[in-house]
C-alpha cells in the first residue's frame, strides 16, 4: 500500500496521528504503537484494524493544572492531610482527590476533570496555597462527549470498552479502584446497577454482579468450555452453580453456605507477619514433640440432666453455664492423681517441672486467630467460679481484649472443637505443656443400657495427645478413665470436690 | 404560630406514623417557602449513630435551598478530629477501664469529651452559605438572652469563652463540594473529672504531624448559672436560630437508627465504629522511647531502646536495641519481628508475644517476658 522509506516515516506518522486524533474516541489508555518505527507498518496497521480505530493513538491530551479553589472565609493556605490518589491514577469528575485541613475545617477536594493524575504538587502535611496548582491532570484530547460505535464483543474489545466507560453519552460513575475491579473481571460497567450517590457504581455493586453470574463472566476460552460441559466427575462449586450447567439437579450437593471467597482471578502473595508468624514458630516447636494420641468416648447423659437442673440457678446468679466448667473441673481433679500431665519439660528434655497450679487453657477462636486464654488455679475453684471466669474470658475474647495475664501461664489445655463440629481430632500440644485434649460434639446415639436395652445416650468423643518422651500410654489411659468417670457419674465429682 | 404553620407541623407528625421513608421525603423536600429551615433533635445518645446521621444529612439532603440545625448529645465518649492521633490525644487504657468508647469524626479540629451534659449543635448549610461566626452568634445571643449576667463571647478561633477565660464551646467543620456542616459543643453539665481522666496521652515518646489539640481550661454553664435547665437552653437556641436565619420554626425529633427514614445510615455507623476508621486513619507516627528492664531474681537492671514506626494504625517497622548480654540478640529481633504487621494495639501485640514466649524457658523466658511487658506498656 505505501512504499515509504524510513526517513519519511516521521512525517507520515505525524500526518496519521492527526488523522487518528480526529477519529479516535476518547481513549483513556495510552497505547504507543512501537511498530510505527519499523517497516512492518502496513501489516500491523491491518492487524490493528478496527481496534486501532477506536483507541490506539492516544497522543497526550492537554495537561490541566487543577488549582486549589477558594475555601471560603478568606483562608489562603491549608494543610494537605491525606491523598486519595497517586500519580498515574485515573480519576473522573467528582472523585475525591485529597483531604485538606484549615483551621478546624476538614475539606474534601474533588476533581473537576476526567483524566490521569500526572503530578502531585504537595506531600502529606505540606502547606498548600489557594489559587496555586494542586495536581496536574492529563485530560482526554477532546472534551466533548463522543458517541461510541457498536462493537463486536471480543476479549480485547471488552478491554477497550472499559477504558471508554461511556454508553451513548451516558457517563457511568465509578472510582478508579472500582473500574479496575470491573476490568479485571471483564464486566461492562453499563450493565451494573449503581447504588451509590447519583447512580454511582460501588464496589458492592460489582461484587453482587459477580455473585449473580459466577459462570458467565469468565472469558470464553476453550479450557473453560470444557469445565462448562457437565462431566461424571463432581464439578467445582462455582461452575456447578453457573446458569449454563445442565447437570442433573441432585447430582452435586449444594455447597454449604460459608462465605465464599470472591474470585478475582489473581494469586496473591503476602508475607506472614505478626501473630501468625509467632504461631509458625510455636507450631514448628510443637511438632518436634513426639505426640501420641489416645481417644475415647464419654457418656454424658447424667451430666446433661444435671446441667439442665442447675442452669436456672446459675442464670439467676447472672452466669451462663455450659458443659466446659464441668470438663475443666473434672480434668483438674484427675490431674491431682496424675501430676505428670500438668508438667513442663525444658528445651533439651533434661528436666521436668511439676507445676503446682492447674492453669487450664481453653482454645478460643477469635477474629485474630486461635488464642488460648487459661483459667488460673482451677484446683481452688468451684464449678460455678470456673463458669464465671469462662464468661469473663469469652467476653474479653469477643472484644479482642485478652491480655498477657490471660494468655500466658497455661499448664494444660482443652480444646472444645466440638462446639463448631467434629468427633475425633488430633490436637497439637502447645509448648511448654505436655498434654492436650480435644472434645468433639455431643451427639445423641443409641447405646446398650444396663439391662441390655437400647437407650438414647449423649455421647461425646475425646481425643488426647501427650508427649511420649515423658508420658506413657497407660498413664494417659488411666487419666482419661478417671476424667470420664467423673463426667459419667457427676455424683463422684461431688465426693472429691475440693 | 399561624394556622398554616400548625397544619404543616401536624401533617409532619401524622406522616411520621406512616411509611418512614415518605415521612423523610416530605420532611426534607417540603418547600413551603425558600426560607424554610429545619431543626432536628436526635433521640439517640449513641455517638456513632449521631455522627452517621450527620454524614447522612450531608450526603443526601439538598442544602442549597435550606439550612438545618441538628441538636444531639451522647453518652460518655471521646471524639477525636479527622486527622488526629488517638494515642496522643486520650488515654486508651483509662477509657477501657471506664467503658468510654472512642469515635473519630469526619470534621477537623481537636479532641473533645462528650457526655449527656454536653450539647452538640450541627449547622448544615450550602457551601456558599458556610459562615461559622454567624452560627456561633446564634449560641452567644441565645445565652445572652437567657442569662444576661454571663459574659459569653466567641473568639477568632471559633471557641466560645465564658468570662473571658473558660472555654464552654469548641468548633469543627467539614466542607464538601456543594455542602458544608459546622458543629460545636456546649458544656452544660459535663463530668469534669472523667474529662480530665481520659484527655491525656496514652504513650510517651510519640512524634507525629497529626493535628494536636490545644488544651484549655473548661467550665460548665451550670457552674455559673445553676438554675439553667437543659430544656430551657435547647428552647432558647432553637428560637435564636430561627430568629437569626429568618426561618419558620419546625422542630422534629429524629431517630438515627431508623433505616427506613435514613436508608444507609446503619452502614455509615458501622464504618464509624470500625477499627479501620477509628485507628487505621491515624496519620503515620513514630515512637522512640527507653525501656527499663529488670530481672527480679538476680536483682539486675538494664536499659533498652525502642523505635517503632506506625502507619495506618499498624506497626510498619520495629527496632529493639537490647544489650546482647541481657538477652540473646536473636530473641529481641524475633520479638521485633512478630510485632511488625500487627495492629498497634496492646491486645494484638499480647497475643503475638505470648505465643513467642511459649518456646522459651528459664532465664531467657523471664527476661523476654519482662521485655514484652515493657513494650506492651508503651503501646498502652
TrEMBL record, chain A:
Q: Which residues form a coiled coil?
A: none
The Peripheral subunit-binding (PSBD) domain sits at 173-210
Catalytic reactions of this protein: N(6)-[(R)-dihydrolipoyl]-L-lysyl-[protein] + 2-methylpropanoyl-CoA = N(6)-[(R)-S(8)-2-methylpropanoyldihydrolipoyl]-L-lysyl-[protein] + CoA
Does the record carry Nuclease as a key word? no
Query: Which N-terminal stretch is annotated as signal sequence?
Result: none
Chief localization? mitochondrion
Q: Which InterPro entries match?
A: 2-oxoA_DH_lipoyl-BS, 2-oxoacid_DH_actylTfrase, 2-oxoacid_DH_E2_comp, Biotin_lipoyl, CAT-like_dom_sf, E3-bd_dom_sf, PSBD, Single_hybrid_motif
GO function term, MF aspect, one: acetyltransferase activity
Name the residue ranges with Low complexity bias.
Answer: 236-251
Q: List localization entries.
A: Mitochondrion matrix
**Cofactors that this protein relies on:** (R)-lipoate
Residues annotated as domain Lipoyl-binding: 63-138
Biological role stated in the UniProt entry: The branched-chain alpha-keto dehydrogenase complex catalyzes the overall conversion of alpha-keto acids to acyl-CoA and CO(2). It contains multiple copies of three enzymatic components: branched-chain alpha-keto acid decarboxylase (E1), lipoamide acyltransferase (E2) and lipoamide dehydrogenase (E3). Within this complex, the catalytic function of this enzyme is to accept, and to transfer to coenzyme A, acyl groups that are generated by the branched-chain alpha-keto acid decarboxylase component.
Q: What is this protein called?
A: Dihydrolipoamide acetyltransferase component of pyruvate dehydrogenase complex
TrEMBL record, chain B:
Q: Name one Pfam family in it.
A: LplA-B_cat
Q: Which GO terms describe its biological process?
A: protein lipoylation
Q: Mind telling me which Gene3D superfamilies this protein's record contains?
A: Bira Bifunctional Protein, Domain 2 (3.30.930.10), CO dehydrogenase flavoprotein, C-terminal domain (3.30.390.50)
Determine the domain of life of the protein's source: Eukaryota
Domain annotation BPL/LPL catalytic: ranges: 63-249
Q: Name one GO cellular component term.
A: mitochondrion
| Molecular-function annotations in GO | lipoyltransferase activity
User: Which pathway is this protein engaged in?
Assistant: Protein modification; protein lipoylation via exogenous pathway; protein N(6)-(lipoyl)lysine from lipoate: step 2/2
What family does this belong to? Belongs to the LplA family.
User: What PANTHER family does the entry give?
Assistant: LIPOATE-PROTEIN LIGASE (PTHR12561), LIPOYLTRANSFERASE 1, MITOCHONDRIAL (PTHR12561:SF3)
Q: Which named protein is this?
A: Lipoyltransferase 1
The major lineage groups are: Eukaryota, Metazoa, Chordata, Craniata, Vertebrata
Amino acid at each position: 500500500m505505501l512504499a515509504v522509506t524510513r526517513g519519511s516515516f516521521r512525517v507520515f506518522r505525524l500526518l496519521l496521528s492527526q488523522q487518528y486524533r480526529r477519529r479516535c474516541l476518547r481513549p483513556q489508555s495510552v497505547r504507543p504503537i512501537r511498530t510505527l518505527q519499523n517497516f512492518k507498518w502496513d501489516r500491523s496497521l491491518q492487524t490493528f484494524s478496527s481496534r486501532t480505530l477506536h483507541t490506539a493513538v492516544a497522543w497526550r491530551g492537554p495537561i490541566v493544572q487543577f488549582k486549589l479553589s477558594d475555601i471560603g472565609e478568606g483562608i489562603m493556605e491549608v494543610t494537605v492531610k491525606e491523598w486519595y490518589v497517586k500519580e498515574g491514577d485515573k480519576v473522573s469528575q467528582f472523585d475525591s482527590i485529597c483531604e485538606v485541613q484549615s483551621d478546624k475545617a476538614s475539606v474534601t477536594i474533588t476533581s473537576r476533570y476526567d483524566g490521569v493524575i500526572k503530578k502531585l504538587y504537595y506531600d502529606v502535611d505540606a502547606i498548600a496555597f489557594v489559587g496555586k496548582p494542586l495536581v496536574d491532570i492529563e485530560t482526554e484530547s477532546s472534551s466533548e462527549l463522543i458517541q461510541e460505535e457498536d462493537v463486536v464483543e471480543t476479549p480485547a474489545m471488552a478491554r477497550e470498552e472499559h477504558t471508554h466507560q461511556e454508553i451513548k453519552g451516558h457517563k457511568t460513575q465509578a472510582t478508579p479502584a472500582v473500574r479496575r475491579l470491573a476490568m479485571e473481571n471483564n464486566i461492562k460497567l453499563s450493565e451494573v446497577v449503581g447504588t451509590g450517590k447519583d447512580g454511582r457504581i460501588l464496589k458492592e455493586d460489582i461484587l453482587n454482579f459477580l455473585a449473580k453470574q459466577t459462570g458467565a463472566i469468565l472469558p470464553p476460552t476453550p479450557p473453560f468450555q470444557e469445565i462448562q460441559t457437565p462431566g461424571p466427575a463432581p464439578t467445582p462449586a462455582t461452575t456447578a452453580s453457573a446458569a449454563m450447567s445442565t447437570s442433573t439437579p441432585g447430582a452435586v450437593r449444594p455447597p454449604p453456605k460459608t462465605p465464599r471467597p470472591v474470585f478475582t482471578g489473581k494469586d496473591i502473595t503476602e508475607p506472614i507477619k505478626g501473630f501468625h508468624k509467632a504461631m509458625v514458630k510455636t507450631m514448628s516447636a510443637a511438632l518436634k514433640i513426639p505426640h501420641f494420641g489416645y481417644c475415647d468416648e464419654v457418656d454424658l447423659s447424667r451430666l446433661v440432666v444435671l446441667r439442665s437442673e442447675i442452669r436456672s440457678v446459675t442464670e439467676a446468679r447472672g452466669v451462663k453455664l455450659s458443659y466446659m466448667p464441668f470438663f475443666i473441673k473434672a480434668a483438674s481433679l484427675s490431674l491431682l492423681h496424675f501430676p505428670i500431665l500438668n508438667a513442663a519439660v525444658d528445651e533439651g528434655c533434661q528436666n521436668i517441672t511439676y507445676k503446682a497450679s492447674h492453669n487450664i487453657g481453653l482454645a478460643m477462636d477469635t477474629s485474630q486467630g486461635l488464642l488460648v486464654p487459661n483459667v488460673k488455679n482451677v484446683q481452688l475453684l468451684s464449678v460455678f467460679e470456673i463458669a464465671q471466669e469462662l464468661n469473663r474470658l469469652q467476653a474479653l475474647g469477643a472484644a479482642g481484649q485478652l491480655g498477657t495475664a490471660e494468655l500466658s501461664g497455661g499448664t494444660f489445655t482443652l480444646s472444645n472443637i466440638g462446639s463448631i463440629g467434629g468427633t475425633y481430632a488430633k490436637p497439637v500440644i502447645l509448648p511448654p505443656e505436655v498434654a492436650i485434649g480435644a472434645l468433639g460434639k455431643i451427639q445423641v446415639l443409641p447405646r446398650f443400657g444396663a439391662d441390655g436395652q437400647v437407650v438414647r445416650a449423649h455421647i461425646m468423643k475425646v481425643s488426647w495427645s501427650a508427649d511420649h518422651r515423658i508420658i506413657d500410654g497407660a498413664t494417659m489411659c488411666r487419666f482419661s478413665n478417671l476424667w470420664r468417670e467423673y463426667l459419667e457419674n457427676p455424683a463422684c465429682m461431688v465426693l472429691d470436690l475440693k | 404560630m399561624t394556622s398554616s404553620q400548625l397544619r404543616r407541623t401536624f401533617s409532619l407528625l401524622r406522616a411520621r406514623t406512616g411509611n418512614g421513608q415518605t415521612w423523610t421525603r416530605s420532611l426534607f423536600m417540603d418547600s413551603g417557602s425558600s426560607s424554610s429551615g429545619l431543626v432536628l433533635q436526635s433521640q439517640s445518645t449513641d455517638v456513632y449513630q449521631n455522627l452517621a446521621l450527620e454524614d447522612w444529612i450531608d450526603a443526601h439532603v439538598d442544602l442549597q435551598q435550606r439550612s438545618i440545625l441538628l441538636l444531639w448529645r451522647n453518652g460518655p465518649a471521646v471524639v477525636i478530629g479527622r486527622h488526629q492521633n488517638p494515642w496522643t490525644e486520650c488515654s486508651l487504657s483509662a477509657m477501657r477501664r471506664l467503658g468510654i468508647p472512642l469515635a473519630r469524626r469526619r470534621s477537623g479540629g481537636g479532641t473533645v469529651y462528650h457526655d449527656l451534659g454536653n450539647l452538640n449543635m450541627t449547622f448544615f448549610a450550602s457551601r456558599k452559605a458556610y459562615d461559622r461566626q454567624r452560627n456561633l452568634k446564634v449560641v452567644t445571643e441565645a445565652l445572652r438572652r437567657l442569662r444576661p449576667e454571663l459574659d459569653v463571647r466567641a473568639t477568632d478561633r471559633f471557641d466560645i469563652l465564658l468570662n473571658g477565660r473558660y472555654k464552654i464551646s469548641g468548633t469543627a467543620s467539614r466542607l464538601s463540594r456543594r455542602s458544608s456542616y459546622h458543629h460545636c459543643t456546649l458544656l452544660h453539665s459535663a463530668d469534669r473529672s472523667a474529662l480530665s481522666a481520659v484527655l491525656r496521652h496514652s504513650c510517651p515518646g510519640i512524634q507525629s504531624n497529626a493535628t494536636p489539640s490545644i488544651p484549655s481550661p473548661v467550665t460548665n454553664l451550670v457552674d455559673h448559672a445553676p438554675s439553667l435547665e437543659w430544656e430551657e437552653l435547647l428552647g432558647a437556641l432553637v428560637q435564636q436560630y430561627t430568629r437569626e436565619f429568618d426561618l419558620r420554626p419546625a422542630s422534629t425529633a429524629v431517630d438515627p437508627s431508623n433505616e427506613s427514614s435514613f436508608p444507609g445510615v446503619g452502614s455509615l455507623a458501622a464504618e464509624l465504629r470500625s477499627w479501620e476508621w477509628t485507628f487505621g486513619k491515624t496519620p503515620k507516627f513514630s515512637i522512640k522511647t527507653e525501656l527499663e528492664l529488670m530481672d527480679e531474681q538476680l536483682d539486675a537492671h538494664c536499659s533498652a531502646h525502642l523505635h517503632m514506626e506506625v502507619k495506618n494504625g499498624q506497626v510498619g517497622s520495629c527496632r529493639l536495641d537490647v544489650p546482647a548480654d541481657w538477652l540473646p540478640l536473636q530473641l529481641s529481633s524475633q520479638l521485633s519481628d512478630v510485632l511488625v504487621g500487627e495492629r498497634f494495639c496492646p491486645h494484638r501485640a499480647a497475643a503475638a508475644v505470648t505465643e513467642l514466649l511459649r518456646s522459651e524457658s528459664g532465664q531467657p523466658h523471664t527476661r523476654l517476658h519482662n521485655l514484652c511487658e515493657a513494650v506492651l506498656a508503651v503501646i498502652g
